[in-house]
Specification:
306 residues; alpha+beta; Glutamine Phosphoribosylpyrophosphate, subunit 1, domain 1; four-stranded antiparallel β-sheet; 12 strands; globular
Length: 306
């Protein structure tokens, strides 16, 4: 049984502020990214390739807060984070604070496969990218008018925008099980609108925003990064399955609906277990999400009921 689940961020997504046209754009973006990743699995490809391609597709879509369309720091820059993990070997790679990498998830995978490190940051990550043949892009590549307007609202002290609104979140991620039973997880983000220069959330932190272990499950998270780091969300879900005997649904619900709220954390996860079962859970008003397993149809949803 192979399958893929993706997310495009979780947070406060009021239906009243989501026009039907905009909702269709989000659904189309999720559908396209899901199809990109699922086609890898359907043709016998690896879970690592599937999550890499799905996340890269979301990084290329300016609707989401990763790659092009990432949010701005308080000083007007885009600082991008990403991570990836191979459940078969427990190898992992991550980058943080990069400003000139078109697809940070591809650099995170390169760190995993072509270095002795797990996490590289800032200029050091970009220098490494150049040694591996990456082409740097100008900062203007990531700029979108909507994200700049959100920053201006933050700078003006707009109290309606908080770190848990749709304009701050939009982190993307994917988890997959391939036909050989191998699991993988990947996550990518621009962080929070108006974040302090150099702030790092959970997305590039292995065990917080991303984790994969063939003995249990693969997890990609989205939400209030500081809380997700403190709760080691992705690893906690895997550990509850491996050592606590929980099913995937039980582990996910315990962490997302009990542990996170007790710490004041809002967000969600997508996860897949070693049998190919998928879970997509969140404690916020909505989470952009989609999934497909072998023999089934694609499922795309934003709110609890659809």
């Amino acid at each position: 049984m192979f399958g893929l689940a993706i997310h495009g961020g979780a947070g406060t997504l009021p239906r009243a502020e989501m026009s039907s046209d905009r909702e269709q754009l989000y659904r189309a973006g999720l559908t396209a990214a899901l199809a990109t990743g699922y086609s890898v699995l359907e043709s016998g490809g690896t879970s690592l390739d599937a999550v890499t391609r799905a996340v890269a597709a979301l990084e290329d879509d300016p609707l989401f807060n990763a790659g092009r369309g990432a949010v701005f720091t308080i000083d007007g820059h885009n600082e991008l984070d990403a991570s990836i993990m191979d459940g078969a070997t427990l190898r992992a790679g991550a980058v943080s604070g990069v400003m000139h990498i078109k697809n940070p998830i591809e650099l995170a995978r390169t760190v995993m496969e072509h270095s002795d490190y797990v996490l590289l940051a800032g200029s050091g990550a970009e220098e490494f990218a150049l040694t591996r043949g990456f082409q740097l892009v100008p900062r203007s590549y990531f700029h979108t008018a909507e994200r700049w307007r959100q920053l201006e609202r933050i700078r003006a002290g707009d109290g309606e925008l908080s770190p848990l609104t749709i304009s701050h979140l939009g982190t993307v991620g994917a988890v997959a099980r391939d036909a050989q039973g191998r699991l993988a997880a990947a996550t990518s983000t621009g962080g929070m609108t108006g974040k302090r220069y150099g702030r790092i959330g959970d997305s590039p932190v292995i065990g917080a925003g991303t984790y994969a272990d063939d003995r249990s499950c693969a997890v990609s998270a989205t939400g209030h990064g500081e809380i997700f780091i403190r709760a080691a969300v992705a690893h906690d879900i895997c550990a509850r399955m491996r050592f606590g005997g929980r099913s995937l649904d039980q582990a996910v619900r315990e962490v997302v609906l009990e542990e996170l709220p007790s710490l004041g954390g809002e967000g969600g996860v997508v996860a897949v277990d070693r049998h190919g079962r998928v879970a997509m859970e969140f404690n916020s008003e909505g989470m952009f999400r989609a999934s497909r397993v072998r023999g089934g149809e694609a499922k795309v949803a934003i709110y609890r009921d659809a």
